[in-house]
């Protein structure tokens, strides 16, 4: 049941699969005779220095993978010198996760907008008081995508786990049925499907934190996001879990970069599995990537140590691949390192 929730995508899972295939279709064209005796993988994001251009994506209910859940992930991210984004649907309190991540250069709070604006404002206050430095506002989920695995498994959050940051909201189904997951019940009853761009202006009135919008695929929406003064864009199809047959996120990075120029940082998630994937994403125009499911697999296997292994593996792969590409810094990763998509098989 838990593996099905974490691993599955929407409907036929075409987008889920294409996220990975989009990286595999591209080839790297390395440069030679470049001094790569020292390779620097660091990046500056919102004024914070991260050890590598990889952040941990927001993912719900991590305690299902390991008893320490988000606490273990926060500790591993801080030790690796990188950032994580903590989900509204976390199984640990925002403040406890922030405390566990002490030393992290940058902590994001991922916001699902609650219909009750007072409760949304409370979440934002809690995040700021706990030390979070930026917001990731998910904008691609007015309703939850259809996931066959969850319905087949009658998925629900195993007790005594709970959505700690949503305590106080009435989110249970009227009949206590397990036919919908806890997260699905929350979406149905609590998450606001009526968001418009005016919400960004309201958000500015209740929070001073920088705002990244997560779930952008259309260049026209990226342009609107910048017009509404967001601080960053995350190109994402929600890990293939929302609209099936939407494009692979990484395929949309060049068009979105063209639409917004370098006015805001662009992050991308979905399908990142290796150091070369990170290089490809940056060469296409992203500033950094978000990593999702591999973190959960490491967490499930060995808790904090497992997540640390995943991050170290990707850091090592990135450093080696940058050297082999003739790119001693991230600034050397340009479109010229890519051959373009290979033909689909």
TrEMBL record:
It comes from the Eukaryota. GO terms for molecular function: FMN binding; oxidoreductase activity. This is FMN hydroxy acid dehydrogenase domain-containing protein. Keywords: Flavoprotein, FMN, Oxidoreductase. GO terms for cellular component: cytoplasm. Belongs to the FMN-dependent alpha-hydroxy acid dehydrogenase family. Residues 1-343 form the FMN hydroxy acid dehydrogenase domain. Its cofactor is FMN. FMN binds at residues 58-60, 87, 110, 138, 214, 236, 269-273, 292-293. The active site is at 238 (proton acceptor). SUPFAM superfamilies: FMN-linked oxidoreductases. Glyoxylate binds at residues 5, 112, 147, 238, 241. It comes from Apatococcus fuscideae. Gene3D superfamilies: Aldolase class I.
């Amino acid at each position: 049941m838990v593996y099905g929730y974490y691993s599955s995508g929407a409907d036929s899972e075409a987008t889920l699969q294409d996220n990975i295939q989009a990286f595999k279709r591209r080839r790297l064209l390395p440069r030679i005779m470049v001094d790569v005796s020292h390779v620097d993988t660091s990046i500056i994001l919102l004024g914070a220095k991260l050890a590598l251009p990889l952040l941990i994506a927001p993912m719900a209910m991590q305690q299902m993978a390991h008893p320490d859940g988000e606490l273990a992930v926060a500790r591993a991210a801080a030790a690796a010198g990188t950032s994580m984004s903590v989900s509204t649907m976390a199984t640990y309190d925002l403040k406890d996760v922030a405390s566990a991540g002490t030393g992290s250069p940058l902590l994001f709070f991922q916001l699902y907008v609650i219909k009750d604006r007072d409760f949304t404002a409370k979440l934002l206050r809690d995040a700021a008081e706990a030390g979070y430095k930026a917001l990731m506002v998910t904008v691609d989920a007015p309703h939850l995508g259809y996931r066959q695995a969850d319905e087949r498994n009658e998925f629900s959050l195993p007790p005594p786990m709970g959505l700690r940051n949503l305590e106080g909201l009435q989110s249970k189904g009227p009949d206590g049925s397990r036919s919908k997951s806890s997260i699905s019940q929350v979406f149905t009853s609590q998450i606001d499907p009526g968001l418009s761009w005016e919400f960004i202006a309201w958000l500015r009135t209740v929070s001073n934190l920088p705002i990244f919008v997560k779930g952008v695929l259309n260049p026209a929406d990226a342009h609107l996001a910048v017009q509404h003064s967001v601080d960053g864009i995350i190109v994402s199809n929600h890990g293939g879990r929302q609209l099936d047959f939407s494009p692979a996120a990484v395929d949309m990075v060049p068009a979105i970069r063209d639409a917004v120029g370098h006015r805001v940082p662009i992050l991308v998630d979905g399908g990142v599995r290796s150091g070369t994937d990170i290089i490809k994403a940056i060469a296409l125009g992203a500033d950094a990537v978000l990593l999702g499911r591999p973190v959960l697999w490491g967490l499930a296997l060995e808790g904090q140590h497992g997540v640390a292994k995943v991050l170290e593996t990707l850091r090592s792969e990135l450093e080696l691949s940058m050297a082999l590409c003739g790119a001693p810094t991230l600034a050397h990763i340009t479109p010229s390192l890519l051959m373009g998509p290979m033909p689909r098989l």
